[in-house]
Design brief:
This protein has three domains: 4-101 and 149-336, Bira Bifunctional Protein, Domain 2 (BirA Bifunctional Protein, domain 2, 2-Layer Sandwich), CATH 3.30.930; 103-145, no CATH class; 362-462, 3-Layer(aba) Sandwich (Rossmann fold). It is globular. The protein has helices at residues 4-33, 55-74, 90-96, 98-101, 123-128, 169-173, 176-183, 228-245, 293-302, 328-339, 374-391, 406-415, 426-430, 454-461; strands spanning 37-39, 51-53, 79-82, 87-89, 103-108, 115-117, 142-145, 148-151, 161-164, 189-198, 213-223, 253-257, 269-277, 280-291, 308-310, 315-317, 320-327, 340-345, 348-353, 362-368, 397-400, 420-424, 435-440, 446-450. With 464 residues, the protein is of the alpha+beta class. The strands form seven sheets. Strands 3-10-11-17-14-13-12 form a seven-stranded mixed β-sheet. A five-stranded mixed β-sheet has the order 21-20-22-23-24. α2 (55-74) packs across α10. The protein binds glycyl-adenosine-5'-phosphate.
């Protein structure tokens, strides 16, 4: 029944949907305008569910991956880094259960032929089998396998079938014995890797949120079955720690316990870490207790023993697995969506990204006040070189810019989320202590500081 209350509620929902669409549209447009992220194959009209990272996007993404690798691999003694092949023997995907069961429910409209993921339709449309686009009749639901199938080698027969991996996890399970035999680690220990995953999503949507090609940062942490709870708890804290490292506010990250009936076939317990996206609260990361499902399945399918011998307890068993699985692109989107701001500065509207310095693609920009004054540009370039040596990583981190007016340069740096700009003017050359101006992105406040203090001040501000 349409009461005034639920009419009001519907209106409110529609309004907030409208706001969310605006935020996402503005963000996508900023990402394109400023060289973060472009639609994949754009000049050919695009390819749905694919996104290309431009110079600033890849710098931001690399910062995210570096922070993850540092926290979970370099800073730990119990983690073994990996980079497994994307193409794997089809036997892997049969044993893992992906060939048989990695599918989503699909429905097709008999009139307009559009296809939808049945579990993402409005309940009314699903129940009454009505197409949300044209109002036509929807056909029967069927399971659609999301793996991209291909053939390896010249022959296109059953034996040459392979798949682009839909998760990085299996590349670690099939190398469990290699790591065991070469490094002889004691339990608990983990294998970690960052890499591409591919899923032929029925309905890619919400920018980077659900793509067909994306990256994962995954750990398979092998434990004695009696200790699984301790490690599970440990990784809840570590995932929260990582989210903080990249600047995501903890109040926007929520833990959602997956009901037993909804668990994936390999999991005995899963927590989804959900994020408050502009389009609602949805999954950001997953943490699963995969038991011994995968090692046992690969052991029985390959005939290779994947057990572990505990020398102290003199027992042999198949380790259990705790799996923190984090999407790189979802992290990038969460960072960008959270950082997007519109305000007014000096009587003018501005857009800026309030990025944490740890992930900002450019941490410091250096400008000469005027570009056609040789003395200024020479001094600014000299300072730029010093700051590069201190703060840059490869070709990103510190930028030199002399194009356009100073106001325009500030606006561009605000839009790409640069926390600090350093401006060199005539005082820098002429006055005692060579003062430079340091401008703060968030407040627009400018402070004049002696050149000799610049590196230490920026290091302190950037948390280095
Ligand atoms: N190995 C377990 C696994 O792959 P998942 O929940 O299917 O679990 C893990 O995926 C994470 O990968 C998700 O939490 C999300 O961050 C990311 N992810 C999954 N599908 C994605 C997609 N289509 N586009 C972007 N990121 C995705």
């Amino acid at each position: 029944m349409k009461t005034p209350e639920n009419k009001k509620e519907k209106k409110k929902q529609l309004a907030s949907k409208g706001d969310a669409n605006d935020v996402m549209e503005n963000l996508i447009s900023l990402c394109k305008r400023r060289g973060f992220i472009f639609q994949g194959s754009d000049i050919y009209g695009g390819l749905a569910g694919t996104w290309d990272y431009g110079p600033l996007g890849v710098a931001l993404k690399n910062n995210v991956k570096d922070i993850w690798w540092k926290r979970f691999v370099t800073d730990r003694e119990d983690m073994y880094g990996m980079d497994a092949a994307i193409l794997m023997n089809q036997g892997v995907w049969k044993a893992s259960g992906h060939v048989g069961g990695f599918s989503d429910p699909l429905v097709e409209c008999q009139k307009c032929k559009r296809r939808f993921r049945a579990d993402q339709l409005e309940p009314e449309n699903r129940e009454k089998q009505v197409c949300p686009e044209c109002g036509g009749k929807l056909g029967a639901e069927r399971q659609f396998n999301m793996m991209f199938k291909t053939h390896v080698g010249a022959a296109e027969d059953e034996g040459s079938v392979s798949y682009l991996r839909p998760e990085t996890a299996q590349g670690m399970f099939v190398n469990f014995k290699n790591v065991l035999d070469t490094f002889h680690p004691k339990l608990p220990f983990g294998m970690a890797q960052i890499g591409k995953a591919f899923r032929n999503e029925i309905a890619p949507r919400d920018f980077l949120f659900r793509a067909r090609e994306f990256e994962q940062m995954e750990i398979e942490y092998f434990v004695d079955p009696k200790d699984w709870k301790k490690s599970f708890e440990h990784f809840i804290g570590e995932i929260r720690g990582f989210a903080e490292d990249v600047g995501l506010p903890s109040a926007k990250v929520h833990e959602h316990e997956i009901a037993p009936a909804d668990l994936a076939h390999y999991s005995r317990r899963t927590i989804d870490f959900e994020f408050d996206w502009p389009f609602g609260r949805k999954e950001l990361y997953g943490l699963a207790y995969r038991t011994d499902f995968d090692l046992k399945a690969h052991s029985s399918a390959s005939g290779v023993d994947l057990s572990y011998y505990d020398e102290e307890a003199k027992t042999r068993f198949v380790p259990h697995v705790i799996e923190p699985s984090l999407g790189v692109d979802r992290t990038v989107l969460a960072i960008l969506a959270d950082a997007y701001r519109e305000d007014e500065l000096g009587g003018e509207k501005r857009v800026f990204l309030k990025l944490a310095p740890s992930v900002a693609p450019v941490k410091i920009a250096v400008f000469p006040l005027l570009k056609n004054k040789d003395a200024l540009t020479a001094k600014a370039r000299e300072i730029y070189k010093v700051l590069c040596a201190e703060f840059a990583r490869g070709s990103s981190g510190v930028e030199y810019d002399e194009s356009g007016s100073i106001g325009k340069r500030y606006r561009r740096q605000d839009e790409i989320g640069t926390p600090f700009c350093v401006t060199v003017d005539f005082d820098t050359i002429e006055k005692p202590h060579n003062p430079v101006t340091v401008r703060d992105r968030d407040t627009g406040a400018q402070e004049s500081i002696p050149l000799k203090d610049l590196v230490s001040l920026l290091a302190q501000k950037l948390g280095k």
